[in-house]
Amino acid sequence: MTVGTRPRTHRAHTRAQATGAASAILRPVLESPRRPARVLAAFPAGVYLEVRAELEPHVVAVVTGEATRLPNAVVLNAPLPRVTVGDEASVGDGSIEVGHLSLRAHRWWNPAPPLGPVDPVRLAHVLPQLTELCDRSARRPGLEGNGAVALLAEACAEASLLNGIMASEQLVGLGPGLTPSGDDVLAGLLVALRHLGAAAGVERAVWLADWLAAAVTFDARSRTTPISATLLHCAARGEASGEVLAVLRGLAGRQDLEPALRRLLGLGHTSGADLACGMRIGLAAVAGLAGQSAGARGRSSRAASSRAVSSRAASPRGGTGRRGSRRGEGDHEGEGR
Q1: In sequence order, what are the residues at sequence separation of 6 or more whose Cβ sits closer than 8 angstroms to the Cβ of residue 307?
Q2: What is the pLDDT of residue 315?
């Protein structure tokens, strides 16, 4: 031993063990080999970790039961660790390690549960109610009156893919904060188109959701915040927070709409109102496209019936084709009179 030195003592770094209920979309990242992460944001009710990933952005939210249950969240059954932005963490091998905490999932929940069949007529009837509730709320969207939002609504109503993509590209990353208003509008729209379109059997709405989702997520990682980019990828797959899912159930008639919408509108400074704005656009599009499809089916049915009647009228039953032809001509003249 060198004179004047003491042997260094190594303290074991112990972590408190905790469990939580995790979104099913986190299973792949939690069960993969451990990867480094860092604290992006820390609040009293939630900590957001960015996991190093080469492909799509991957942010994991560790939240308490009082926080919004985001589609990328683990809901903790213990106090949140005290951490600051920039602190190191790790995710993988079945756990999340951040601060003094080692967190494991004890159960999984689905952030995109299907609604089940919904009558398109129901959606058309509930649209004015949603519009009225949003319009009279004191919580206003952050992009109220924005031209890109108006263009998006018009494009979705017409199922215009070109205009929809143009509007969407203007909205990605538009606005301040961890989840810019433009992203929240797009997230609400994508979730509504996908869930309500599938529930009502409006394939055109699901088709529109697929293409808009591809456009929105293509370069979201470089155009908006990591948290918002992750949530856009979630919305593209139909994954949403508990508050958004509750409003969808309200629109489908599965629960009361007004209290569910009130809880959604209360989220953040404008996030809830922006999400509701997007959902309103999506609902209007699904209801409108369902009406167009029904009208097209009706016209097709009438045309088929007309052809059948014409075919029967021209049929030479009981005589020659010439007699049948004159009978048809006589009937036509009678209709003219």
Answers
A1: none
A2: 52
User: Is residue 197 within 8 Å of 203, Cβ to Cβ?
Assistant: yes
Reduce the DSSP state of residue 44 to 3 states and report it.
coil
CA distances 268 to 10, 136, 177, 184, 288, Å, are 44, 18, 10, 11, 30
pLDDT bracket for residue 311 (50, 70, 90): low
Q: What secondary structure letter does DSSP report for 268?
A: T
Burial 221-252 (b: 16+ CB within 10 A, else e): bebbbbbbbbbbbbbbbbbbbbbbbbbbbbbb
How many whole angstroms separate alpha carbon 62 and alpha carbon 76?
7
Q: Write out the residue limits of the CATH 2.40.50 domain(s) in the chain.
A: 16-109
Residue 22 tokens, joined: 């995790």
Residue 300's Cα: distance from chain center in Å?
33
Instruction: Tell which phi-psi region holds residue 94, choosing left (phi > 0), alpha (psi between -120 and 50) or beta.
Output: left
- What per-residue confidence (pLDDT) applies to 292? 86
HSE value, Cβ hemisphere, 13 Å, CA-based, for 145: 1
* Enclosing H/E stretch for 181: helix 181-200
Collapsing DSSP states into helix, strand and coil, what is residue 235? helix
Tell me the torsion sign for CA atoms 220, 225, 228, 234: positive
The predicted pLDDT at position 310 comes to 52
| Cα 166 to Cα 18, 109, 154, 158, 216, distances in angstroms | 46, 35, 12, 14, 10
Using a pLDDT cut of 90, give the percent of the chain over it: 77
In contact, 297 and 173? CB cutoff 8 Å: no
Q: Return left, alpha or beta for 177; rule: phi > 0 is left, psi -120 to 50 is alpha, else beta.
A: left
Instruction: Give the whole-angstrom CA distance, residue 30 versus residue 25.
Output: 9
Architecture of the CATH domain 16-109: Beta Barrel (2.40)
